[in-house]
Design a protein that fits this description.
alpha+beta, two-stranded antiparallel ribbon, 4-stranded mixed sheet, single chain
Length: about 170
């Protein structure tokens, strides 16, 4: 990697964070679905690759991490999900698969249910950002696919996988 590329990504992400965004309604009376639990705090934008004026997607879809035994969406992942929602709105043929994961603490049944709740929180957040629910699938792997055997916090996550036109247009495989 060229030494100036990380600096360029920081500059691009800070400029992209200043761009005007369309207002997303968060009135639960419109959808009948209560808003997902979201922690408050500073928002951190992920690095962005601009392919043209209409397409923006995080360089790699980092997992959305959760605290122990929690389904609260942390603020640092809200911008990532906003960018994913924007790409999905621009590409009606694209879909996203959300998988929920947990650490090894707890029973298998509990972890499968917790993983499903984590995937559902991400799905609900994307729905509230305007993505049609039929384009989002969820699945829980519970504790079955750990990222780390020593850093358990890395296993408490939801992963997103884009498929369809958005990936093809943006050069993903």
């Amino acid at each position: 990697m060229r030494p100036y590329l990380p600096l360029l990504l920081v500059v691009v992400s800070s400029v992209a964070g200043c761009a005007a965004r369309s207002k997303v309604s968060t009135d639960s009376s419109e959808t009948g679905v209560p808003p997902p639990t979201v922690a408050t705090g500073p928002r951190v934008a992920p690095p962005v690759v601009e392919t043209d004026e209409r397409d923006a997607l995080p360089l790699d879809l980092e997992p959305v991490y959760f605290e122990l035994d929690s389904t609260t969406l942390r603020p640092e992942f809200q911008d990532t999900l906003l960018q994913v929602a924007e790409v999905l709105r621009r590409h009606p043929e694209a879909r996203v698969d959300v998988t929920g994961h947990t650490c090894e603490l707890g029973t298998t049944e509990y972890n499968l249910a917790l993983g499903q709740r984590r995937a559902s929180v991400v799905k609900d957040y994307l729905r509230r950002l305007g993505v049609d629910a039929s384009r989002i699938t969820t699945l829980s792997f519970g504790e079955e696919r750990p990222l780390s055997s020593t850093a358990l916090e890395k296993n408490r996550r939801a992963e997103l996988d884009l498929s369809g036109g958005a990936r093809a247009r943006l050069g993903a495989e």
